[in-house]
């Protein structure tokens, strides 16, 4: 029987990071990654296959990342795990014995059974599957009207890319606003204005009653109020479910939402088996309640943490809960969020203060290419500790959101922000005298004093 | 006699931030700012007057920032400070009494007396002075050859802007490389290649012997090796000296380098007088040795800290020393640095590990507009605490450098980085599986383990 030291199941971001980190931290160990896909897509790049990029070939993670790091790669499906004897049964390669196993089995898009018409031929989801997406893209050539159900970030990015490529796009979101888990209403409205300004039709605050079809093909989408949207293609981006069947079959505990149970070392009940990424259970860093977050930011941190703790545990290398940090871009504007929204913080019982400052992402604002930059901070009222942040701005929004992410993860207070040195440059950041993040912190501090 | 509660002397970044923060934290107090300049330039925007912007009118800080915050503004020169009686003598406005005084008197470019020809008519410096710079710019019309002495960030930015506007520019730097206080050699070389690629002539590792002149006008610059560079205009950007004469005359202590002595609350020996910005003494956050840093990042943090401590001191609102954080941009590439370089850390006696990772600022790298992104980290060998970072990349370099700045100021270790959640997006950041900052941390950790 073939043997390896560290076996990773899953070849997307979490699996790759688990493998490369494992090899980096345990160079003497043999690390092997098994995945079923021949080619791996950059997951967050998938929407861009439909507009900005010419084809999915340009959106691949090269296997050289694994091979150059001396990581064994097997393209095959794992049928079962014998946890007791530490053996994986692999479809085409027989059995592989392991010392440590990392499950990075990912997630699968939901195709809701309760939704009439969801099974129709031209109703697609967005799985991490190159063959599927290539087929779907090829079928879009003669398509004019596209209805996208679900205004999460994949729905939004798909809407924008298809709109760019000349389709007539309608985006339907059940919640009052798109991306409402990440952004409070006033920022979500700005995002919606951008989408509408680019020609995308939005239907928010309304659900889908059914997908209408003729001869196995969708022809339209009927909303809950009876309105019917014409559709030559329908995309369902209504969520993903964790791929935890393999773990469950192996006797590992899975939580109510279907995620594999892990502790802060990302270790399952079995001391030699870890789970990371979309398939692994997690709680919110702030609210401490279970959260079905599926984001590369969280997955990759979990993967590094599991890999560092494989052979010896370290209390300074713990996963503290997801801060749900992410960012996206629509045209020249970008949107980022980390931690809790004002809405969620209030709902979960926090006593909070919030402040928003609008400035610019360059200075003086007369410089060509200047974008507005809006920063909203959500802070604990008493301690001033930052619980969440939302950003709208230009190209620097991603890293500015990451800065807020570090602030949240380090449990910094507004005082830490107000005493911080912030590098600024006319072409790269907001102005030193009105850097939006600092001004928002100042506005929070002002409210603290007037309590 | 006119009376105010908080009096600020100086109208550039530090003065403005001291004033607005003072008003925000002490809204019941009367805050007055005195400055001698009619118009205030965005200091870091000054080089852009010479290329990107049409005129210095587009590089002004509007007085509305002060006036809208209900801050009194006086355009006048302060002749002297009577510290005992808490009165400022102001040229045109008589005396002003104060409860608290903040000195934000700034700095003046050095025009070295020992350099023959430095006094010639067409030899300019870059002071924060709109009238002076307008006059200088007007005189550049018929100029072809410009020699810039001093390869700090102002020298570099002036070189690039004048080059853009069609001048033949030579930049002379005495040190082996430009910006060698901020960047280690291998990164400074990349910056030099960019400058050369844009048509700027560089003379590094060589000093200036004299500025040659005829009839009170500079005609060339002779280097130490005897080479003579033709010049129709010469710019001296060889440093700034603190404006501390007013403080010294008032009996306040000034250090050997000419900076006003302050403690961590930015308070001078006099409990009601504070000093911030270029005129105030500071030490390095890392090395704890005095440092003549003059950067908006440091100045504005000092200004906020002084303003917050005016009436009551707070031990969580201290200035911990300068991290010399800054960033600049040349063409499509940007350069940022925070904390110590490898070079300086070694010189000052630190036992360090360093690692550099080169990736991309978008992902996949096939996306249009992708730039390389290089991150170098300098960490303490034993603790893994991050002491410095250097970045080369695209538009997001400024905020990525700020992220590193927060990491340094929070004394985070590589473990904090390796467990951190980093938001990524194809168009906004490097890839989740190879985010350069994290990969550099991983390389540091690898070296720690092999010790």
Can you put this structure into words, describing what you see?
2 copies of one chain form a homodimer. Chain A is an alpha/beta fold and 451 residues long. Chain A folds into 3 domains: 2-108 and 241-308, FAD/NAD(P)-binding domain (3-Layer(bba) Sandwich); 123-238, FAD/NAD(P)-binding domain (3-Layer(bba) Sandwich); 332-449, FAD/NAD(P)-binding domain, CATH 3.50.50. Chain A has 11 helices and 24 strands. The first copy, chain A, has helices at residues 13-25, 64-67, 130-138, 153-164, 185-197, 245-249, 296-308, 342-347, 397-409, 414-418, 436-449, and strands at 2-3, 6-9, 31-35, 72-75, 78-82, 87-90, 94-97, 100-103, 107-109, 123-124, 145-149, 168-173, 201-204, 208-214, 217-223, 228-230, 233-236, 240-242, 273-275, 326-330, 333-339, 352-360, 372-380, 386-393. In chain A, the strands form 6 sheets. The first copy, chain A, has a 5-stranded parallel β-sheet, covered by helices on one side. Chain A has a 5-stranded parallel β-sheet with strand order 10-17-11-12-13, with helices on one face. A 5-stranded antiparallel β-sheet of chain A has the order 20-21-24-23-22, sandwiched between helices. In chain A, a hairpin with a 2-residue loop joins strand 14 and strand 15 (217-223). In chain A, helix 1 (13-25) runs parallel beside helix 7. The longest helix of chain A is centred in the C-terminal third of the chain and has 14 residues, at 436-449. The mean pLDDT of chain A is 96. Chains A and B meet through helix 1, helix 7, strand 20, strand 21 and helix 9 of A and helix 1, helix 7, strand 20, strand 21 and helix 9 of B.
